[in-house]
Amino acid sequence: MADLLYEIVNEPIQVESLVKKVSVREAGAITTFIGTVREWTKGKRTIYLEYQAYIPMAVKMLAQIGKEIEEKWTNTKVAITHRIGRLDISDIAVVIAVSSPHRKAAYEANEYAIERIKQIVPIWKKEHWEDGETWIGDQLEKFPYKDGKPILKDVEL
Amino acid sequence: MIKILLFADLQEKVGKPELELKLEQITVEELKSELQKIYPLINLESVMTAVNEEYAMADDAIKSGDTVAFIPPVSGG
């Protein structure tokens, strides 16, 4: 499975494997983003998180993000893996690797990818706090989806 | 038969991840109000809809055999 560029997995993510997926001879830079489980959010302590995904569509949306990036920043290559299931504090939830001939595009495209994940990829996080649990939505505070569709406008960087 | 997939809090409120409704054709908006009648506790207002894994609009048609997913605001990353 090492050559799938967009994956939803149940097991821990190996960052190095994503680096390898985007490592090409044209690349002069590879950026990685590693999203981890934070213990404290606005004064509330998280015990663990639970992620759920609509897997086939989530993979499609990750691939769409990759396609958008490859169109916006030429000669970039993208790999994204998101983990689901139960994750403890400091566990890696998502890894994004972008390679590019030059570093600026690699940085920008990587940030674009995480912003788009938070807009269009059907993955949900349930916070298990010390004193209860909540499904989290609307982290970008740009919703609700009045027309029943996601906001697809460009991400500002 | 239309297959409906539910996630996150919707899945918990309905108590199951999947539903099947015997319908021939319906729009996204109509299907939402049908479900709202059956499950008054759920709120589908800020929920997106995907038909066969593609985001759909309120007046898009759903036919028997389609899979509809109701997608609450996402929180990946």
UniProtKB/TrEMBL annotation, chain A:
Known EC number: 2.8.1.12
Catalytic reaction equation(s): 2 [molybdopterin-synthase sulfur-carrier protein]-C-terminal-Gly-aminoethanethioate + cyclic pyranopterin phosphate + H2O = molybdopterin + 2 [molybdopterin-synthase sulfur-carrier protein]-C-terminal Gly-Gly + 2 H(+)
EC class: transferase
Pathway annotation from the record: Cofactor biosynthesis; molybdopterin biosynthesis
Biological process according to GO: Mo-molybdopterin cofactor biosynthetic process
GO MF assignments: molybdopterin synthase activity
InterPro entries hit by this protein: MoaE_sf, Mopterin_biosynth_MoaE
Origin superkingdom: Bacteria
This protein's record includes keyword Transferase: yes
Family annotation (SUPFAM superfamilies): Molybdopterin synthase subunit MoaE
Keywords noted in UniProt: Molybdenum cofactor biosynthesis, Transferase
Protein task: Converts molybdopterin precursor Z into molybdopterin. This requires the incorporation of two sulfur atoms into precursor Z to generate a dithiolene group. The sulfur is provided by MoaD.
Family, per entry: Belongs to the MoaE family.
Subunit structure: Heterotetramer of 2 MoaD subunits and 2 MoaE subunits. Also stable as homodimer. The enzyme changes between these two forms during catalysis.
Protein name: Molybdopterin synthase catalytic subunit
Organism, scientific name: Oceanobacillus bengalensis
From TrEMBL, chain B:
GO CC entries: molybdopterin adenylyltransferase complex
Biological process (GO), any one: Mo-molybdopterin cofactor biosynthetic process
Pathway: Cofactor biosynthesis; molybdopterin biosynthesis
A GO term, aspect molecular function: nucleotide binding
CDD domains, A to Z: Ubl_MoaD
Key words of the record: Molybdenum cofactor biosynthesis, Nucleotide-binding
Family designation: Belongs to the MoaD family.
Oligomeric form and interacting partners: Heterotetramer of 2 MoaD subunits and 2 MoaE subunits. Forms a stable heterotetrameric complex of 2 MoaD and 2 MoeB during adenylation of MoaD by MoeB. During catalysis MoaD shuttles between the two heterotetrameric complexes.
NCBIfam families in UniProt: moaD
Stated role: Involved in sulfur transfer in the conversion of molybdopterin precursor Z to molybdopterin.
Identification of the protein by name: Molybdopterin synthase sulfur carrier subunit
Species in which this protein is naturally found: Oceanobacillus bengalensis
Gene for this chain: moaD
